Amino acid sequence: MITAPLSSSHLAASVMAVPPLSRQPDFTLDEEANERIVRHLEAGGVRLLLYGGNANLYHVPPSEYEAILAMLARIAGADTLVIPSAGPSYGMLVDQAKIIRRFSFPTVMVLPQQGITTSAGVAEGIRRFVDAAGVPALLYIKHDGFIEPEDVAALDRDGILSGIKYATVRNDASIDPYLRRLVEVVDRERIISGIGEQPAIIHTRDFGLGGFTSGCVCVAPRLSQQMLAAVRRGAWEEAERIRSVFRPLEDLRNAINPIRVLHRAVEGAGIAPTGPLLPLLSNVEAEHETAIDAAARTLLAADLAASV
To answer: Residue 220 and residue 222: Cα distance in Å, rounded?
Structure first.
């Protein structure tokens, strides 16, 4: 596992995958299945793994947190950088910081807390978390009103942040006053497009963001890496062609639920069993499984064809 700080060179070389977390039927961790997902990603060239929303770390019991970090450290390849998440509440951040200090992860993402927050309070909480954890934070911005660009800039100037994952959904990704302001006050190459392949072209081409995260990369790592390579060289038509291959599965994620559909898709494609989602989430209803499995298998077949 890479323990060097997250840098713009990492974002230029690899899509940041956001995998699901496999569990046994009794909700315990399924290390073998999780390792199969990691090996699938690494075989496709992915070297950045972010365990956050798709892994449902919002709802993990505090008693399980250390076991999750230990497993992630064990299953990552020598050339892979792993980013776990902490939070979203301040109380969770405080207690998880003590556990994070026992490991060598170069950064940890702070999950966004919705409601009962102020921008100044979020900034102060992240400062205290970083001080306690001993590593910089990857800031996750998922909705307006969470933290203002000026507070983000202050955190970044003080070395509190390793980067920013920007994932606020807009009806039109090109019209985003918040992101326009953010790239004015923070180095745009340190900001990561955080909503998968669909807005990644607009975010990287029009706003100059340094890379993108993906959930569907867990099914099609080669294609996602090829899209990143096209983006990096400005081959926008090629990037758009690849993006369209992801759309059927992404449309299902948007229509049903991004986390729940990806959880099923990784299993439905035959990559690894994912088991039950930890409450307060639940697995997709049986009526959706056929469509998800078909889209996932089609995407995986396209990915395997891309490697020939």
So the answer is: 6
Cα–Cα distance measured from residue 262 to residue 266, given in angstroms and rounded to the nearest whole number: 6
Residue 92 domain flag: yes
| Residues 6+ positions from 173 with CB-CB distance below 8 Å | 199, 202, 203
Work out the average pLDDT over 4-33: 97
Q: Give tens-digit pLDDT for 206-240.
A: 999 999 999 999 999 999 999 999 999 999 999 99
Tokens 């798709």 map to which residue?
Answer: 54
Give the Cα separation of 81 and 62 in Å (integer). 23
| CA distance linking residue 63 with residue 189, whole number of Å | 36
Domain presence at residue 1: no
Q: Which domain holds residue 149?
A: 8-306
For residues 170-196, one letter each, b for 16 or more C-beta atoms within 10 angstroms of the residue's C-beta and e for the rest, the string is: eeebeebeebeebbebbebbbbbbbbb
* Number of domains observed in the structure of the chain: 1
The reply to whether the predicted model has a pTM over 0.90 is yes
Cα 21–chain centre separation: 12
Q: Given the DSSP bridges, would you call strands 108-110 and 48-50 parallel, antiparallel or unpaired? A: unpaired
